[in-house]
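for ur thesis appendix - UDP-N-acetylglucosamine 1-carboxyvinyltransferase. copy paste whatever u need, i formatted it the way the template wanted (i think)
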Amino acid sequence: MDYFAVEGGRPLEGRVFVHGAKNSALPLLAATLLADGESVLHNCPDLTDISAALGILSGLGCRVRREGATVMVDPTCRRGHTIPDELMGQMRASVLFLGSLLARDGEAVACWPGGCALGARPIDLHIRAFQALGAQVRSWNGRLSFYGPRLHGRRLALPIPSVGATENAMLAACGAQGITVIDNPAREPEIVDLQGFLRSMGAQVSGAGTGEITIQGGCRLHAGEYTVMADRIVAATYLCAVAAAGGEGELLGTQGEDLGPVLAALEAAGCETGRAPNRLWIRRRGPLGGVGSLCTGPYPAFPTDAQPLLAAALAGGTGKSRITETIFDRRFRYTEGLCAMGAAIQVEGDTAYILGRPLHGAQVAATDLRGGAALTVAALGAQGPSRIWGLDHVDRGYEGLETALAALGGNIRRETGP
Ligand SMILES: CC(=O)N[C@H]1[C@@H](OP(=O)(O)OP(=O)(O)OC[C@H]2O[C@@H](n3ccc(=O)[nH]c3=O)[C@H](O)[C@@H]2O)O[C@H](CO)[C@@H](O)[C@@H]1O
Ligand SMILES: C=C(OP(=O)(O)O)C(=O)O
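the 3d part is after this line
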């Protein structure tokens, strides 16, 4: 089993490239099923979640190739519409292949999706969207089957702006005759990326990033070519690492246009940040303070995925912070690991009260993706050696996190232990 060996407590200085976004690449890979011909995705990160997505596509008979950060998918010879349980259970975004299969073949079968254990993660809104477009749903023995050979467009209102349900509704609507309008969709930048890729395939989609998305479905889609956006949560991870350890870091491949609330919080805590085209930097020379009160929420509010990262930096600072998590009901599990490093964090319901104080190194284990990254961020700011276990979680969403943090000046290595 691998772990990160981190020797923390000294300032960072360095420069790092921010790879493509997992949460954009995954829906885009699902969308490749809609094309006639080979689609090309640039800046596609090499992550275990992406391998699982490519495994789903290969299992469905698609021709899949990778050349560096470019992935090509040709679904011409695809066959079947069942997603293997093992791949379905590996990640949350496997659910997105259902929307594409339904649009393309009018049929899809799978078990329930996996993903980070952040609390209840139902897919009722996905199912309701498919039903509204005319699909029949059957559930038996932990499996779900969808049948909708003649989907038809209509107006759908999401009670909450679910990212995955919005993406699935967009994908399924591409195969539905007529116009689908999604009211109250998620407005995350990854939704705008999905719209961009679908348009490159000839789909008529508009409104992503606003309160209403319109899809004119039923047209044949050709192969598309698109560059996946930079990963804003990976960028937030690097920024928080510098905030935790102090020093100065430069991020390339992004200018943080999607990171407003994260940058604002880091500045409130005493960091300086700056942007230039395709470049973002952060500097912390003095102590890291607190942020007062902060609340996660759907975009454009503070992203839940960056919540553990910011908390990890603040825990080793000198100020008081109160962070309320509004998206997932069990997203503070990582705080146990921070407390093992000496953090003073009290979790009461949906709120974590953080009293910043110096942290010390410890042996800790990741319980989920961002939780694992958060422990690594804290370890860089903590005095002495740490070991972070549970890297299978981290590898789902970071391409060589240890290499990137070492490029930023961190003393971190991946080692193999018993
Ligand atoms: C692969 C991917 O892109 N994952 C991201 C996506 O997850 P995901 O798409 O799962 O997140 P959602 O936006 O759907 O979930 C938001 C909230 O809606 C609830 N809900 C969702 C669907 C549903 O059918 N019923 C329901 O009640 C969830 O339990 C949660 O409380 O958006 C989350 C919120 O920004 C991020 O943390 C995840 O990193
Ligand atoms: C929660 C996350 O991923 P997933 O939805 O795939 O579990 C994440 O990217 O932080």
